[in-house]
Amino acid sequence: MISFGPVPSRRLGKSLGINNITSKKVCSYSCVYCQVGLTHTFSAQRQEFYDPTVIYSEVEKHLAKISEADKPDYLTFVANGEPTLDIQLGISIEKLKLFGIPIAVITNASLLNDPEVRADLQLADWVSVKIDAGSETIWKKINRPVAKITFQNYLDGLHAFAREFKGKLVTETMLVKGLNDSEEELHKTAELVKLAQPFFAYISIPTRPPAVKSVLPSDENVINQAYQIFNENGLNTELILGFEGTDTGFTGNAFEDIINICSVHPIRQDTMDELLFKNNANSTVLETLLHNNYVQKVEYKSNSFYIRKFRD
Predict the structure, then answer these.
(1) What angle do CA 105, 18, 41 make, to 5 degrees?
(2) How far is CA 163 from CA 6, 77, 101, 254, 309, in A?
(3) The CATH number of the domain where 179 resides is what?
(4) Which among 218, 244, 288, 311 has most CB atoms closer than 10 A?
(5) Residue 225's domain spans which residues?
(6) Which pTM value belongs to this model?
(7) Rounded distance between C-alpha atoms, residue 114 and residue 96, angstroms
């Protein structure tokens, strides 16, 4: 379950995902909107997960299985938790660079106060950092960080990384209705994003089933207001609001593709149908996975999604 896809990405084109966190979600946050679900193990301590040699080998085998048309634009560390918790992340990035494909890392930015984390991320070509709030109170409400991480730790790390990183740095702000989308908070958030000086400042909304069922995307007028406020701060702002499409890569093994993708990336029904079709599989595969509790079906905003169901 290390690599999956490629999946269509609104930021990266075709993205071959790399899940470098084993088993259930291990994270420094438990964000209310997280599509992977609630955090199973809270941690701010880096540790070993997969051996970098194993990650390289699994990605190599995956690349060999997919068609030329599905060759990825990026190899992306997007994990079942926070990818920078992997103490061997830098070694893995160095090994994967041998494929000649740009490396991306999507991080919640909570560990950037650690110089070793920043050094590891310097090896990447593209890094996305999460900036959901400009005030400590809202930051805690939306991200629900482990106690060891303070808002000041987060800010210090964010500023240090923004100064040092030589690759393409982008930010992502997820708007949740009634939580971080007041006009006052949007101004504070935009000011914080501006300090990072990102290549792009992305504004997004929840489009997949969130960890907290009551979470809803901000209203259209609020999204427009956020866009205007970000632009007024001189930010190169883009909205990520819609469905990214069903064109998911496949390996010929429907069971593995479904499990590997939905461990990190909930699969919408239309995407699932196309994935089964590409793998020359029928609904029996999905029914078996559901029956054996490998995946579960959930509803969100009039759509059905399939997500990984980890066993206790």
Answers:
(1) 85
(2) 31, 22, 25, 43, 40
(3) 3.20.20.70
(4) 218
(5) 3-240
(6) 0.83
(7) 23
